[in-house]
């Protein structure tokens, strides 16, 4: 966080949105009107966000190459801003049916979008927190290397 790079802030907000999207999606499944559709959409958004914001998951799970190539195209500040803008618009549309807790998700998607857009406007490099916190394997003892791999 000391780098003051807005793309890192956007990534951490996005990681928080993964859990919030899943929780609020489940909570909004029990509405009688059309809001439950947006709850289902929020549940679907959670794994998509997880794949976008946590690149380690692309190595763990079997995912088609076309999905991986799409996710890798989102590795710029501009494209992430557009991605989060689309996610935010979907959740803001849920408010047309009924104002529910999905407004919190829409607000956080919007904040993440502004973080990535701000990084793009300021000309900051696109960073991921795993790139900033790299560990030089030659400097760590063997036990620590094994823990880092696990």
From TrEMBL:
<dbReference type="GO" id="GO:0000139">
    <property type="term" value="C:Golgi membrane"/>
</dbReference>
<comment type="function">
    <text>Golgi membrane protein involved in vesicular trafficking.</text>
</comment>
<keyword id="KW-0333">Golgi apparatus</keyword>
<feature type="transmembrane region" description="Helical">
    <location>
        <begin position="101"/>
        <end position="122"/>
    </location>
</feature>
<dbReference type="GO" id="GO:0016192">
    <property type="term" value="P:vesicle-mediated transport"/>
</dbReference>
<feature type="transmembrane region" description="Helical">
    <location>
        <begin position="36"/>
        <end position="58"/>
    </location>
</feature>
<keyword id="KW-0472">Membrane</keyword>
<keyword id="KW-0812">Transmembrane</keyword>
<dbReference type="Pfam" id="PF10233">
    <property type="entry name" value="Cg6151-P"/>
</dbReference>
<dbReference type="InterPro" id="IPR019365">
    <property type="entry name" value="TVP18/Ca-channel_flower"/>
</dbReference>
<protein>
    <recommendedName>
        <fullName>Golgi apparatus membrane protein TVP18</fullName>
    </recommendedName>
</protein>
<feature type="transmembrane region" description="Helical">
    <location>
        <begin position="12"/>
        <end position="30"/>
    </location>
</feature>
<comment type="similarity">
    <text>Belongs to the TVP18 family.</text>
</comment>
<keyword id="KW-1133">Transmembrane helix</keyword>
């Amino acid at each position: 966080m000391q780098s003051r790079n807005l793309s890192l802030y956007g990534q951490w907000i996005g990681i928080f949105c993964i859990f919030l999207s899943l929780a609020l999606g489940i909570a909004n499944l029990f509405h009688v009107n059309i809001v439950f559709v947006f709850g289902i959409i929020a549940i679907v958004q959670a794994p998509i966000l997880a794949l976008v914001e946590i690149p380690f998951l692309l190595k763990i799970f079997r995912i088609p190459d076309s999905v991986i190539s799409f996710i890798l195209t989102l590795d710029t500040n501009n494209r992430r801003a557009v991605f989060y803008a689309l996610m935010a618009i979907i959740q803001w549309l849920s408010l047309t049916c009924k104002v529910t807790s999905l407004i919190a998700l829409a607000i956080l998607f919007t904040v993440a979008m502004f973080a990535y857009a701000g990084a793009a406007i300021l000309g900051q490099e696109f960073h991921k927190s795993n790139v900033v916190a790299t560990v030089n394997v030659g400097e760590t003892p063997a036990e620590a290397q094994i823990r880092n791999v696990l």
